Amino acid sequence: MHLSSPLALLFYGATSLIAELAFATPMKPIIKLTPHPITQHTIELPLNEYHSLEILALKKVSSSQVPRPYDMPQNTQSSLPIDTDTVIDINHNNIRDDYERLLLTQYQRPEYVAMGVLAAAHWDRLIATHNQKERILLITAITLITNNIAINQCYYSLQQIDNTLVSPILNYFNTERRITIKDQAEEKLLNIIATSPFNITFEPQPCQRFTLLAESMLQTTFTSL
């Protein structure tokens, strides 16, 4: 992926903001990235098809029940509604309908659709902190920020193997207002982290964060066969 792509710019902006905070307090490093070489041997899908279908069933996401209005046979960009800040969730599954339609039309693999559902659940929690009046715990801020970066890193890593994969982040934050809320929420959380004496490191396999998100959503623990 070239840095000129929108996703790369978002990822670059997030890491740049973290770097600025770190350099602002050189005696107390805040976040330490530990990147590892990306190869086909170190990156694999975090979910199998079985767990992916479990997530889609739980969230009532199905290509046979795409939220209206939508003309399934056309399957063209012009059939999608114009993006607005209005949240429409006709099928009441806590996933914005325009985003849900995007997942079902853009991805052919249930694993990718499930990853998009998990990412949306995280982004929902992220933007909820924007107007949160109650004190946000440090562990919550760290979890949300590290989830954020791991999700971006995972999509970037998978794109090195599957160049047809596109992160849904620009479809979730698809208006200027939503992007602004995202940026302000991230800044709010980073300011909380900046007061912490802890260093933050990231696992060498960022896609494993999707596994943790899936286990949390399904309230189970995956076992390796």
Gyration radius over CA: 18 Å
Query: How do the helices and strands follow one another from N- to C-terminus?
Result: HEHHHHHHEH
Supply the helix-strand structural class.
mainly alpha
Total separate domains:
1
Amino- and carboxy-terminal Cα gap: 33 Å
State the major sheet: 2 strands, parallel
Instruction: Report mean pLDDT, rounded to a whole number.
Output: 78
Helical segment tally? 8
Brief sketch in words of this structure:
The chain contains eight helices and two strands; from the N terminus they run αβααααααβα.
Q: Can you put this structure into words, describing what you see?
A:
By secondary structure, the protein is mostly helical. It is built from eight helices and two strands. It has one domain. Strands 1-2 form a two-stranded parallel sheet. The two termini are 33 Å apart. Helix content is 51%, strand content 2%. The longest helix has 22 residues, at 138-159. Helix 4 packs antiparallel against helix 5 (138-159).
How do the strands and helices of this protein lay out in sequence?
Elements lengths: L5 H19 L6 E2 L16 H10 L38 H10 L3 H19 L9 H22 L9 H4 L3 H19 L5 E2 L6 H11 L7
Parallel strand pairs: 1-2
Helix pairs in contact: 1-5, 1-7, 2-4, 4-5, 4-7, 4-8, 5-7
Index terms:
225 residues; mainly alpha; 51% helix
